[in-house]
Amino acid sequence: MGRFSSTSAIALLAAGLAFGAQPGPAVAENNPVDEKWWPSEFGAEDQAGATNYITPEKRLEAVQLVKQGKVATLGMQYHNRLPLFPGRTFALSIPGGGGPTHNLPWKGDNFRQTFMDELVTAEIGQAGTQFDSLAHPMIKVTGAKDLEDGNYFYNGHRLEDIGSPRGLSKLGPENVGSFFTRGILIDVAAQKGVDSLEKGYVITMDDFNAALEAQGIEDVKQGDVVLIRTGWNNLWRDNLEKSQDDVSADNAEFNSGEPGVAPEVCDHLAESKASMLGMDNWGIEPYDFAVEPPSDIESWGYCHANLVTRRGIYLMENMDLKQISDDQAYEFLFAWAPLKLVGATGSPGNPIAAY
Amino acid sequence: MGRFSSTSAIALLAAGLAFGAQPGPAVAENNPVDEKWWPSEFGAEDQAGATNYITPEKRLEAVQLVKQGKVATLGMQYHNRLPLFPGRTFALSIPGGGGPTHNLPWKGDNFRQTFMDELVTAEIGQAGTQFDSLAHPMIKVTGAKDLEDGNYFYNGHRLEDIGSPRGLSKLGPENVGSFFTRGILIDVAAQKGVDSLEKGYVITMDDFNAALEAQGIEDVKQGDVVLIRTGWNNLWRDNLEKSQDDVSADNAEFNSGEPGVAPEVCDHLAESKASMLGMDNWGIEPYDFAVEPPSDIESWGYCHANLVTRRGIYLMENMDLKQISDDQAYEFLFAWAPLKLVGATGSPGNPIAAY
Amino acid sequence: MGRFSSTSAIALLAAGLAFGAQPGPAVAENNPVDEKWWPSEFGAEDQAGATNYITPEKRLEAVQLVKQGKVATLGMQYHNRLPLFPGRTFALSIPGGGGPTHNLPWKGDNFRQTFMDELVTAEIGQAGTQFDSLAHPMIKVTGAKDLEDGNYFYNGHRLEDIGSPRGLSKLGPENVGSFFTRGILIDVAAQKGVDSLEKGYVITMDDFNAALEAQGIEDVKQGDVVLIRTGWNNLWRDNLEKSQDDVSADNAEFNSGEPGVAPEVCDHLAESKASMLGMDNWGIEPYDFAVEPPSDIESWGYCHANLVTRRGIYLMENMDLKQISDDQAYEFLFAWAPLKLVGATGSPGNPIAAY
Amino acid sequence: MGRFSSTSAIALLAAGLAFGAQPGPAVAENNPVDEKWWPSEFGAEDQAGATNYITPEKRLEAVQLVKQGKVATLGMQYHNRLPLFPGRTFALSIPGGGGPTHNLPWKGDNFRQTFMDELVTAEIGQAGTQFDSLAHPMIKVTGAKDLEDGNYFYNGHRLEDIGSPRGLSKLGPENVGSFFTRGILIDVAAQKGVDSLEKGYVITMDDFNAALEAQGIEDVKQGDVVLIRTGWNNLWRDNLEKSQDDVSADNAEFNSGEPGVAPEVCDHLAESKASMLGMDNWGIEPYDFAVEPPSDIESWGYCHANLVTRRGIYLMENMDLKQISDDQAYEFLFAWAPLKLVGATGSPGNPIAAY
User: Fold this and answer.
1) Mean pLDDT of chain C
2) Chain A contact present for C87, CB below 8 A
3) Which of C77, D57, D235, D282 has the smallest number of CB atoms closer than 10 Å to its CB?
């Protein structure tokens, strides 16, 4: 893909260049290379992953968090000026050919109904605010002792077995169910007193705990959706209003890296049995593509592998966490279900936080 | 568009043939031809429409409806076998070229991360489960006394003024906000004891009231989302599992007409200040394209014009109402927000009913 | 892909079901399973294939065939009513949003330039009139003695090596060059006195030679483009003018099989060093999907494998051969070059025959 | 479209800002504002335009120009790194989902056929090497004395009459026929001794005649295809091989303006009854978007209006004229026909020059 990639820095990532880094101890203990695949705690047939953590009791507790009757919508705007991961497309058009898209004969000649449609071509589950289904990240295993070669999704499903040109045969978002549960905001940017954390900044458990304490809320509980705010999406929040030069520069900066979470934070979420981690950056983990060799190679893809692929805990990227930050809404009912895009790798979304 | 339409019966509708029907009295009193445009009750600048009816108090009442901790997701599955309105496309592919869509260099040579994406080309806001934004239906006015010619959307916006090839400049779903409110199910199919109402069946206020009474719930209140079940979507609920011949026949039958609601039902929703009407058919109003001249011409497009265009009350089509019918969940918290597709004409969706 | 296929009969083919047929002798001698890959006669680095047969001398001879100054264009019309192979899309829209796609400020207020564009989503190299590049058909080899497992394209390139999600890294139509050479028409339908050969009809060398003789032209020479007419495309030639019901029925019939050429005809073209075989059916070889087990299994894919994959001799499908048949133009200058779609698997086209 | 445009300089053009320039005399005499629409010399029903100039005799003369048996293909490469006019898309993907796009059951278990397809979403007739059909440029007329308001295409067809969301009902490239005729190269860049003319450079009749003289060929004759080389496409000829930063910078420079032809050159081609003007820039006329107010406003869109819209003389942009320049091939057979994309506004292409 490298030769078609459209942003130079992130292209390193997209091109799949190996850096020769050795697995450190934290990774080694999760390393599947010498063992059987990590089985899902929800059973060999499970395709729903961590939404299994959300019980009726959990839902009844979550609605108690709605105290003011306020809501925030947590999706960013989708449009043709979105920053996109290299190689992806987002193209919205309005078919018309000079007039309405279609017409309804109605009530005589001078009073008719007409309609507009839109046509979108996009990696719709992997553009802008995006939910990664269990069919998105894989761990590629070659030469393992007891594991057949292949690209492994959650629960031992291999691309070689479930891949299909018009939608994967398993693990698509149609299997997820819903997130109707306690949501919490970990507002690291606010706790640090900055508009945005810096590119490459690694959010540690110390940061996580400092925010928890400052906010006065309880730690992650089973089934929670955990939202961590970096401020990084500020770079494109307003790009519909900007000049093209500004948009180009901001999108390039946005794609050139990001602040993100340390492996230990994802380990904490896994141990706490969170159902989802959502952030306001493009890819969860910290990156700074200008630094080579990357100092943060241990964190690359760590949460994708250890949350999604191994445990079925979901990720949601490019969320809009500004309003709940402004409202200091740290605990809320999180209500959302992905589109039932059969065999897709993700879903766009606009979740509701109610508080 | 007629010559490209892909289903013969519904093509009459798509082709925009005039039938010469005269406006009857119920329509005449809403007829804008001889008067000024119907101004929005939410002000001349409003682009949000009937979500304005949903107040903080309303939201706090709505969460009280969650009693069992159960949820249902109300979206149908999206895939390449969807029945589509003539001329529309839904094409999901998995780019790969024989392998993963992209790769992440990670942890040495025999342990890497790989990823799949999906690529969708679709009238994404007007395919399958679809929410009509205020930028979808228009009333075309020509030769009116005090009204400039044009295709009028909600609140007097004309296509001629806000049309744009890459997204309309006003009224897109990014302006809607959210539906976090009381939802009610009017289960007409269950009340009639049928799997599905017949094509062309007109749901009257008598039907509506009979269902209300049988279900033992209160009538529509301001800000409610009202879901009316016909059973018509049963024709494609299972079409991923069917042979192609069965899918083709069922989709053709699905598109050949539908049961729907009488004008008086939409008038009732308008008077009650509902925020949305959702149904499990493709287009809200009743049609039977085999009957010519159509006996139901008075109802064609009535709700689109009188709810969406004139009052900003939203419509949602092709919803999946089976589970809430099975669960006899007649009152619930309805939680959903459309995708912020800037300048689009609608949004796909998978709303949550919690009860 | 089977569960998304859109035409029942051809779905057998698309679904990739194995029929357990054994290789017969004609195939066995070409069978790569027990031997090294068939090397290209044009060298190990070659990506151009049989256009190498077309020399400057050949071109100078070919222009001598233009005697009347007449031309025919050999492409069918592309539009949203095309018959498509299961799973493929052809969707043309005109973005406008109610007006022109874009504008040019020009010459004051009452005299401006405006423009329309079209937006197409399609397997553009594999829809309607289509040229198969060397990156389209593969032979999948597993368990061969001296050959690594994989999907093999022309000249030993494997999908596993040159696959890429945004265009294959070798063998795309940008490498083909051009066809400016002698073209001949083998008008089997005319020689048989029928509008169209029947579905499943197998064109033999006897048929081929009978047509040659009746037409009074010389046999295939090195570098020639050979066009064989079956009449099968008559089923969709006029479908822009037809009712939707007729289009649906005709497209289904078109996809349910086709007349095509016997292996011996393709062997003859290979020995004669033709540069391309073009036909007016969808897939070159004969099929009748209603017959099971298929009587013609030996011919399935034979020409794709033995012409394209093994020898780099090109195929072009869904050509419009009606005018040259009507004109009895059996020998002509064939002038055409595929679009330089980098890394694509084919190209649309509208070749010129000049005579 | 302005708010979605993706290149700042060219956005002025795309946004349709008026500059208040007054029509000068050369334009005024062509100005349709006060007169009837310019009727086609080929009759009121004509949709083919200037290919009518190409007679059988012309074709027979043209083949005499093939003397060496050499060919050049005149299309640039199409890929995801193309420079695009603001708002347009070119996205090629290879559907596979981890393996081949589809399979053919064949010859037992260890010897099967498999296939790859490509999926393209693009303004396919208006991206890269592009032929403008008569359905692309319009003159918008408002308030003219004897002419109804509207966007006028060739031969008096208005967008308001022939517009349609899935393809215009007239003037698409399916009506063009073919260009099999004398082609001439006017190599202005070579005559000036430069790799590329400068942005905004206006090619005059003096330049045109100087090149003709230097090249020793006869002037334009009826039916000729005239190709004028500027060198401007050098900016993206090699961008598949470049780093992303270089591609971005070069594409931005490419879109920021171009050398082009003066109105007098287009007048000369019109008088000479050429069938097509092809160039190696993106838009025929000269632009330099950094100069404001533009000094060349008289030339903006002049050829589009006066060749295509008024006379049906075609334009082809982004052609690759390097090889014929290198070969000093100034006279040749030009052989090409656009794709029969019904109702489209243009066509991609890869014409052949044979000499």
Assistant:
1) 88
2) yes
3) D57
**Is 60 exceeded by the pLDDT of residue D82?**
yes
Residues of chain D in contact with residue A168, where contact means CB-CB under 8 angstroms, are: 97
- Structure tokens that stand for D275 in this block: 């069938």
Q: D: neighbours with 3+ CB pairs under 8 Å?
A: A, B, C
- Beta-bridge partners for A182: A333
Chain A nearest-CA distance from D107, in A, is 22
Contact list, D81 vs chain A (CB under 8 Å): 4, 6
Rounded to whole angstroms, how far apart are CA atoms A125 and A314?
Answer: 13
Residues present in chain A in total: 355
Q: Which of D116, D120, D332, D350 to mutate to test the interface with C (most CBs of C within 10 A)?
A: D116
- Which residues of chain D does B91 touch, with a Cβ-Cβ cutoff of 8 Å? 119
The letter for the amino acid at B25 is P
**N-term to C-term CA, chain A:** 44
- What pLDDT is attached to residue C137? 95
Nearest to B281, CA basis, from B68, B69, B85, B24: B85
Q: What residue type is assigned to position C162 of the chain?
A: I
With an 8 Å Cβ cutoff, is B70 touching chain A?
A: yes
Q: What's the CA gap between C215 and C330, in Å, rounded? A: 7
C242 in contact with B, Cβ within 8 Å: no
Helix, strand, or coil (residue D117):
coil
3-state SS class at A39: coil
Q: B137-141 and A111-115: which strand pairing?
A: antiparallel
- CA-based torsion, C145, C151, C153, C159: positive or negative: negative
A and D: number of Cβ contacts within 8 A? 86
Contact yes or no for B166 and D4 at CB 8 A: yes
Q: How far apart are CA B52 and CA B179, in angstroms?
A: 10
A145: contact with C, CB 8 A cutoff: no
Cis peptide before A86 (omega within 30 of 0): no
Contact partners, residue A43, CB within 8 Å, separation at least 6: none
Q: What is the rounded CA–CA span in Å between residue D82 and residue D90?
A: 8
Rounded distance between C-alpha atoms, residue B190 and residue B280, angstroms: 13
For C303, residues 6+ apart whose C-beta sits below 8 A from its C-beta are C261, C263, C265, C266, C277, C284, C285, C315
In chain C, the residue whose alpha carbon lies closest to the alpha carbon of D340 is C77
- Whether B39 has its CB under 8 Å from any CB of chain D: the answer is no
More confident residue, A335 or A295: A335
In chain A, the residue whose alpha carbon lies closest to the alpha carbon of B144 is: A110
Each residue of A120-138: pLDDT tens digit?
999 999 999 999 999 999 9
Residue carrying structure tokens 């060093």: C273
Q: Which of residues 196-235 of C touch D (CB under 8 A)?
A: none
Q: Can you say whether the dihedral through the CA atoms of D87, D92, D95, D96 is positive or negative?
A: negative
On whether the CB atoms of residues A49 and A176 are closer than 8 A, the answer is: yes
The reply to whether C159 touches chain B by the CB within 8 Å rule is yes
**Nearest CA among B206, B171, B201, B208 for reference residue B314:** B171
Identify the H or E element spanning C257: strand C257-258
Whole-number pLDDT of residue B208: 98
